[in-house]
Amino acid sequence: MKNLRNLSITWEIPPSLSGKVLREFLRDEKQMSRKTLAEIKYKGGALLVNDREETVRALVKPGDKITVVFPPEQVSPLLTGKTYPFSIVAEDDHMMVVHKPAGLPTVPSKERPGYSLAHAVIGYYECEGVPSTFHAVNRLDKDTSGLMIVAKHRYAHDLFVKAQQKGNLVREYQALVSGQLEKKEGTIDAAIGRKESSIIERIVSPGGQPAITHYQALAESRNASLVHVQLETGRTHQIRVHFASINHPLLGDTLYGGNSSTISRHALHSWKLTFEHPLTGKMHTYVEKLPQDMEAAWLRESEA
Asked: 20: domain range?
């Protein structure tokens, strides 16, 4: 393991904030929670004003340089570092955009407690000296491939989650669904809840949580469609349940009635992420093309 390195961020006090105390700047302007401030104080972080350590009661003036040094995070002893395959698309001190392959769960399960993207990310952190635990901003089902955001500290995770709740993190998917859609473009607005007889399966249910899925057919074959999907909400199995509910289950999705003759997992790929970085203010867009198994399945469907 490399020596641990500090994760930090620096801001400059703008002219409009004269006469504020540091706590007000961090809480009101930077949306930093009391819990985060307490962890910085008591768990090895630091607050610096012009490179000098201060408390949250320090008065700040325009032009002051504020640096927050985040404390090292405690990793669960059950989350040991592994070298399972995943790729890093982009990275800075606050987040990573990663590509999760199909078949790798985001987090460990009872069936495979030592096998997940979380283990792989912790393994990477150990090699690189990143003093963090695993913070997934968006999660993908085990057999869904594609792009995810992983925050490197709790403050970044909190800001990304708030951005996602406000619709400022746009998640776009591509899916192969059974049949030809009668409406080539539309919205599925149907609440989703647990199926009473299953701990895994979900169903469209009036008593469930609100769920909204926007879609557009990109191409069609005789028995299948390539569909672009954009989520407005993020319920468990949302895309899979919604398309099954309109009698167009995803290819390979045997849990929800999909045909597995051309692909052995549900044909769903997180292909595009667009967001404003909550700590830098910069816009980011990342695209990951369809994986080989989905391309091959679509080719077989197109030739059928």
From this structure: 7-70
